[in-house]
Design a protein that fits this description.
Elements lengths: L24 H8 L3 E8 L2 E9 L5 E4 L1 H4 L2 E7 L5 E10 L4 E5 L9 E2 L9 E6 L7 E16 L2 E9 L11 E3 L4 E9 L10 E5 H14 L5 E2 L2 E5 L2 H6 L8 E6 L4 H4 L7 E5 L2 E2 L3 H9 L6 E8 L2 E8 L1 E2 L5
Parallel strand pairs: 7-12
Antiparallel strand pairs: 1-2, 1-4, 2-3, 3-6, 4-5, 5-6, 8-9, 8-11, 9-10, 10-13, 11-12, 12-13, 14-21, 15-16, 16-17, 17-18, 17-19, 19-20
């Protein structure tokens, strides 16, 4: 457990629970604010701040990998204004998630949504943009299953929201109108670096899976295929004799990888993985993420104008540390 414990707060009422049918933004905020903290970091690249969400009563919090990456010192400011030192339990660049641990001080985790939200559902973002603690903004879930290219990684299956998200919101909560956590805010699409009405959050299903692996084993294991692909365009599709420009064109096969063992070749066009259709390189990344290392899979591909299937066993994504 991390050092830096301060005296626990006393006399704080239990957080309000939102009625089952959904509540106002104010009611939701009141119920969730005790579960969201500010994170301040110092490291070789300087100082910065972000947000974190309580994951469990026994001292674990979730934030983004990019918030704590390269940090040498991390502190957490809790909703009751206590400032405590935090230990980085584990980080995962592939999902942009990290787990922190502090000495427990009456932490209150939020409720976790059991179902993925739908486009149009209420979305409420809570965090510390620009270091402004306990900031609440609201909007809707604009889309689901978005893939976003971030530095060095493609984040897949994200929620898109128009709730205002700004620097410092990273690692904060995105909740529904019942106060249930639906995602961890991670990125914005903006020309200025500030909210432009397009923000992204990691869905709670991914959050739970990654956090549990980081807590239990200190790392996250992902299935690995071992190919570099590119999207098709109509010109390339015509050269290959294809009727459409849908699929992932294999550009390179890593020697000794699962793809190599399966006999994949540059120029192959992958159109499905198992029962998941592949219309682009992003689709292939998302499909691979749905498997675990050593799982068996079947690729449907087009080679020399002929459709064929190949079976293989996934490898393990090499460590990024």
């Amino acid at each position: 457990p991390a050092a830096g414990q301060q005296a626990p707060a006393t006399g704080d009422p239990a957080p309000t629970r939102v009625r089952q049918g959904g509540g106002s933004v104010a009611e939701v905020a009141e119920s969730v604010l005790p579960s969201v903290a500010r994170v301040d970091v110092n490291g070789s690249a300087g100082s910065g701040s972000g947000s974190a969400v309580v994951y469990s009563e026994d001292g674990y919090l979730i934030t983004n990998n990019h918030v704590v990456e390269g940090s040498t010192n991390v502190t957490v400011t809790l909703p009751d204004t206590q400032v405590v030192d935090a230990e980085v339990v584990g980080t995962d660049a592939t999902s942009d998630l990290a787990v922190l641990e502090i000495t427990p001080t009456r932490l209150t985790p939020p409720q976790f949504a059991a179902q993925q939200p739908r486009p149009g559902d209420t979305a409420i973002a809570i965090g510390s943009p620009f270091g402004l603690d306990s900031t609440v903004t609201s909007g809707i879930v604009s889309a689901t299953e978005r893939d976003v290219n971030a530095p060095g990684v493609t984040l897949v299956g994200l929620l898109q929201t128009d709730a205002a998200i700004n620097p410092g919101n990273s690692g904060g909560a995105l909740v529904n109108d019942r106060g249930e956590l639906i995602g961890i805010n991670t990125a914005i699409l903006s020309q200025t670096g500030q909210s432009g009405g397009i923000g992204f959050a990691i869905p709670v299903s991914t959050v739970r899976d990654v956090a549990d692996q980081l807590i239990n084993q200190g790392e996250v294991r992902y299935a690995y295929l071992g190919v570099s692909t590119q999207d098709l365009n109509q010109g390339v599709a015509s050269q290959l004799g294809l009727d459409s420009a849908e699929g992932a064109l294999v550009a390179e096969v890593e020697p000794g990888s699962a793809a190599d063992d399966a006999g994949l070749q540059p120029g192959d066009v992958i159109i499905a993985l198992g029962d998941q259709e592949v219309t682009s390189s992003g689709d292939l990344v998302s499909a691979v993420r749905s498997f675990s290392p050593d799982d068996r899979g079947t690729l449907t591909l087009i080679r020399d104008g002929e459709e064929q299937e190949v079976e293989f066993a996934f490898g393990t994504l090499p460590s990024q540390g």
